[in-house]
Every structure is written in C-alpha cells, then in structure tokens.
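FORM 7B - TANDEM STRUCTURE REPORT

SECTION 1: FIRST PROTEIN
SEQUENCE AND TOKENS:
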Amino acid sequence: MAVILAYGSPALGHLYPMGALLRELGGRGHRIHLRTLAGEVPNMRRIGIHTEAVDPRIEAIVGRDWLARNALGVLKTTINVLCRRAVIEVDDLRHALTQVRPDAVIVDANCWGAMSMAEASDVPWLVFSPFTPYLRSRAAPPFGPGLRPLPGLVGRVRDASMRPFVSYLFDRRIVPRVNALRARLGAPTVKSVDGLMRRAPLLLAVGGEPFEYPHPDWVDVHFLGACEFEPTPAIVPEWLAAIDRPIVLVSTSSIAQADAKLSQIALHALADEPVHVVATFPAGVPRGLPPTPNATVCRFVSHRAVLDRAICAITHGGMGTTVKALNRGVPVCAVPFARDQAEVARRVQVAHCGTRLPAKRLTASRLRAAVREATTMAEGARRVAAGFAATGGVARGADLIEQRLMQGVLPRGFLPPGPCGASPEVC
C-alpha cells in the first residue's frame, strides 16, 4: 500500500470533507499522514490518521471578515490571508515531505503555497476542493458573484462580459504573489487563478449534479458528493431526543463572519411556528440572543443527529452544512453573506432543493416565508441526494487516486476497482 500525505487549510469546513476521503483511503490499507489545524490533531489521530499541526504561524494569520463593509471587502481580506499563509506553507510542506516521504500528496484548494511546493517536488499530487472549484467554464457564469445561469445568447453575452471583471478581482491580487513564490521554487508561473488550479493533474471536489452546474469543458475534475465526515460517532443528546416537534437547524460559519444576525432573526421569525429550532454557533455563541421557548442554542452539536430529524436547514450558504443537509434529503434556506456563499445559495435555488434569501434582504417575515417555502421542496433535496450518491462518493475518489497517481506504487497484481466498482477489465 501507499503512503499518502494530506495538507489542509486550518479550517473545520475544509478538514472534515477531506477527512471523509482520507478515512476511505486509510480503510484500504494506505498509511495516511495529515497536516491540519492544531485543535483537531487529537480527533484525527483517534481515527488512525498520523496527524500533526500545520506551522502555527499559518493559523495565526486570520482575517476579520466581520469588520468588512461588504462582500468585496471580505474577498480582499480572504485573499490577503491566503497569500500570506501561502509563503509559510512552502517550507511547512517541504518539511513534511522530508519527514513522511509520501508516494502521493493531497493539497487543499486554498493552500496555494503548498500546491506550488507539491508541483515543484517529484511526488504525484492532486488538489481536493471542499467547495465548487473556481475554474472557468463556458457552460456556467463566472464563479464568485452567484449569478443565475442564463441559457442562450443572452447568457453567453452576459457571462463573457462579466468574466474579465471577475478575473480582475481575483487575479490581480493573487497571481503576482503566487508567482513570486513559484519562481523561487522553479515552478512555472501562472496567468490566472484558473491556471493555478489547472496545474493539478487531478482535482477532486465536493458536490455533484444536479446541485452543481454541468461543466462539459472541465477535464480531470471529479465531484465526490457530500463527503460527509465527523471524527467522533454522532451522539444524540438527551435534550435533542426529548424534542417532540419537527426540527429546523440554524447553522452559522465555523470561521467568524458577520452572520450572527441570521440566528437572531431566525429565532424571532420562527418563535410562533410549530417547530423546534436548534441553532449552532461553531465560531462562538453571540451575546444578546432573544430567549425563545421553542429553541435550543449551543456552540456545537452533531449536525448528523439534528438533520436526521430536521425538516429544513437554515444556513449561511456554507458548503459543508448545506450539502450535509441535502445529502439527507433535507431542504435548505440559504442566506449568503460572503466568500463562496453566494454561489452555494444560487445552486440551492437553481436545483430547486431550497430557497435563497440574500443577507441584505434578511428580515423575520422574509425568512419565515423562505423557510415555509423550503419545507415544501423535499423532493428537490432528495433529487440532489441521489445525484451526490451517483458520483460514487469518496470511494470513487479513492479509486481515482489509486488509478491515476499510484501506478507503480501499489503491489504487483493489485488492480484498483474501475469506475463501476468492478475490476478495470469488466468496466
């Protein structure tokens, strides 16, 4: 079997989807090493993954999204954080490569320095994206603003006019800084963020049609469904088991942003509805939440346990909670704030698996109406769940890694399964 090194961005929303793939690979007998956020090292070690923390200087570089005045301000902050981290990632991954001597490397899509270091090494590598990859596609709007796909000539003209603008926002802030470190590594320079992503020989991503738009022009990009993962077994607390009403989950970002008002308004909007609201705040429970008899507020609880009984999930448009809900056929009310959340919310709307309510239009009455509408869309959510399953999930991802990156590493006579699950000859 092979030795695999995974290098991740220090965020739960990135670690957990990658963790699903790593657990699958470990279950096949591969020896898995991981670099991730320090707080999750014990959890990942408990499931048999050899885990160390990334360089602490990387975790120390954080943005203050909640201070940004708008989504563009959040974008600027996020880019600056990732570019500053990228410089440190180069030596951090170089050190890990020397220690582990892996047969293959998996790099988080937000780790641009680690991607460049992996490419400069002589080790087979791939990118894992816990969100829709920011790649250009002739069949879809440019990634970022959350534009609705438009068919025909009108859509092609709009998208063609928007692409240079969106590329400018990303590329002029990222490409010079990434190319500076790539030059020091002897790696080829790139002309765009799209070009950087396409340097990977293989890109695996969370998602799948019909939640994701069709991308017939994407090569070596494979979606793996929801990539659900929790490092510890889902425990149903006594208070959750005692709830005798339909449940609505409210989830905010695990990385602090200005989304506290989502939960505040949700508690108010649903106070008189025949439901029980479970509101989670992984980045910290905000002060001043209104006391609500039909609500339970906590920082953490197993979303798996809650979603098994939920009729709707109100999310900030984060990919993790959104796809986790849809994977169980639970419709979503997405209220996007920044980052990639506008894209996630638009996909919820387009796939008819829930509703989309922009944060700037967020009021109690509008949210109540959006949740009521979302609860009628369980059929669309189940259709998305079926689409996720049809990707083959992390088992298909592990197959691709074994087939594409490990030829010559696996024992003689070992043939990884083909895409249909049987032997390559049968497929």
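SECTION 2: SECOND PROTEIN
SEQUENCE AND TOKENS:
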Amino acid sequence: MASVASTYARAFADVVLDARLDADRAIAELRAIASLLAESLELRRVWENPAVPAKQKLRVLDVIAQRDNISKQVRNLIAVLIDHRRTHFLEPVIRQLEKELDARLGFAEAEITSVRELAGAERQEFEAQVAKLTGKKVRAHYSEDASLLGGAVVRVGSTIYDGSVKGQLERMKEAISN
C-alpha cells in the first residue's frame, strides 16, 4: 500500500511543482474530495464499481470539481485513481503527498507538546528554535499533555528534543541510579 501511495504522491508532487500550483490549496482540494468520499457511500459505490461506465464516473467527478472549484490537476489525479480503481488509496496518497512536498520545499514537520496551550508569541519562538535546529522551515502541530509538568517536547521526524520537567526528572533519576 505504501508504495502505491508513494508512487501517486511523487507523481502528483511533480505536477504541483512543475505547474507552480499552491501546494496547500491542492492538498485542501484533495482533502475535500476525500471527505466527500468518506461521507458518501453512494459516491464510493459509483467510483469503485467496475459495472459503472467510466464516462459516468468522470461526469460525477466533473460535477463535484465544478461545484467545489477543484483545480484541473487535482481533478485529473482523482480521475486516474478512479480509472485504476484506487480511490481507496486517496487518504494515504494525501499523507504521502504532504511528506513529499514538505521534503521538496524544505519544510520540517514538528510535533510540539506542552503542558498548556501556547500563545502566538510562544508558538513563534518554538518554531524559530526548531527552524534553527533543523535548518528548515517549520510546519508545527501542537498538543497538550499535563503529565509533562512544565516545558515542552518537540519531535521532528525521529528526533525528540525533550525540555519537559518530566523528562528532566527522569534523566536525573537515571543519573542517580547509575
């Protein structure tokens, strides 16, 4: 499954960059279609049923694309998925596409967990520090965890920067026990 999603994601990333599309808009359009597909059993039945003629499937897609102002490139990707009966791979394709575009555009995904919700200035400071550490622009996702007691934990890929009070206490405990 991962290779199928990766193949479509890499190909569509090429399209996004070659056509100079707004990557965030393209992903938002794909998410909108994925949401429609997840919510509508009828739509899934039409697009996934080999007995439904391809022209009919594409007419349904065109109606949706026109109604929701979907770009031609996104519409074409969905058409390819429909033609190859791979619409069930749409969510993994979107996830891989985000990773692929982030890598190509020099972004790092950062998961920042703190004991409380961070204000705008605090978020900017964290993002600036992560950017300095990674040498990349940062797309940060925030969450809260009261068990941290204070500070924050930042995860970028497989690297974890633990500046939490809980983490400091655990390191002290380990040092004392050795």
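SECTION 3: OBSERVATIONS ON SECOND PROTEIN
The chain has a mean pLDDT of 89.
The beta strands are 107-114, 137-144, 152-156, 159-162.

SECTION 4: SIGNATURE
Preparer initials: ____
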